[in-house]
Amino acid sequence: MIDLHTHILPGVDDGATDLEMALAMGRFASEGGITTIAATPHFYEIPTWSLVKQKVEELQNEFRNAQIPVDIVPGAELLMDMGIMDMEARDIPTYGDQGKFCLIEFPLQQVPMYAEQVLFNLQTKGITPIIAHPERYGSVVENPNLALGWLRQGCLVQMNSGSILGRFGSAVKETAKIMLTSNMVQLVASDGHGSDRRRLNLPEAFDALVEIVGASRARELVETNPRSILNGDFQLKVEPVEYRKRRRSFFSRFA
Ligand SMILES: [Fe+2]
């Protein structure tokens, strides 16, 4: 499996606090069957993209010394902000520094009015935005079809494995299921912050994922799609569909 959303870089954000924890996260991931991890620190907490890349190289060396067989790819989690529109393409953190796919999160409470504009601006720079964990956003829980707008605009959607496992409550879990069965998700990742509660739990969610979407689609979400994103050749194969809430009709209550 390939985990494209982790806070494994030590001492840069609210993820791994030190090298020891980062190594523990790496070992745990490897034991669960993860071969590649993208380090995606909160970009507002780390000063520059070049520093992220340097820290990834350092951690990869530490993994090698500790014989942890996991590759680390540089990335970052951007926070939706108007300022992104002023950034040069080369300064925007993209997976593997390929200038093709970036991870971007929105504030949990509400989707900003300017979101569509910022996403479009990234696309004009040749970058496909991947929306981080929309199933956790209040407005998406209320209306999962909001994700359709981003997908139709050409963005991709990353879901947290913890959402599938119910770590963020039953409403988020329910939203995750709706989005998965409506083909609104292209990749699942852990968003792991440490080695305890918010650990790299992508392998733990795999069985639940198989139950919802079947084995072959589950594989796509944790392996094939993340790999093609890292290769820069991802193509959307499964069209998302609108979620229609099934309401019980007046007469069915008497049936
Ligand atoms: Fe994150």
Choose one word for the global shape.
globular
Q: Which percent band covers the strand fraction?
A: 5-15%
The total count of helices amounts to 9
- Total domain count: 1
Structure in words:
42% of the residues are buried. The protein has helices spanning 19-32, 49-65, 115-124, 138-142, 146-152, 161-164, 170-181, 202-213, 215-231; strands spanning 2-6, 36-39, 71-74, 77-79, 101-105, 128-132, 156-160, 187-189. The chain has one domain: Alpha-Beta Barrel (TIM Barrel). Strand 5 (101-105), helix 3 and strand 6 form a beta-alpha-beta unit. The mean pLDDT is 94. The termini are far apart. The protein is built from nine helices and eight strands. Helix content is 38%, strand content 13%. The longest helix is centred in the N-terminal third of the chain and has 17 residues, at 49-65. Strands 4-5-6-7-8 form a five-stranded parallel beta sheet. Strands 1-2-3 form a three-stranded parallel beta sheet. Helix 8 crosses helix 9 (215-231). By secondary structure, the chain is of the alpha/beta class.
Write the layout of secondary structure elements.
Layout: E1 2-6, H1 19-32, E2 36-39, H2 49-65, E3 71-74, E4 77-79, E5 101-105, H3 115-124, E6 128-132, H4 138-142, H5 146-152, E7 156-160, H6 161-164, H7 170-181, E8 187-189, H8 202-213, H9 215-231
Parallel strand pairs: 1-2, 2-3, 4-5, 5-6, 6-7, 7-8
Helix pairs in contact: 8-9
The protein binds fe (ii) ion.
Summarize the structure.
The chain has helices at 19-32, 49-65, 115-124, 138-142, 146-152, 161-164, 170-181, 202-213, 215-231; strands at 2-6, 36-39, 71-74, 77-79, 101-105, 128-132, 156-160, 187-189. By secondary structure, the chain is an alpha/beta fold.
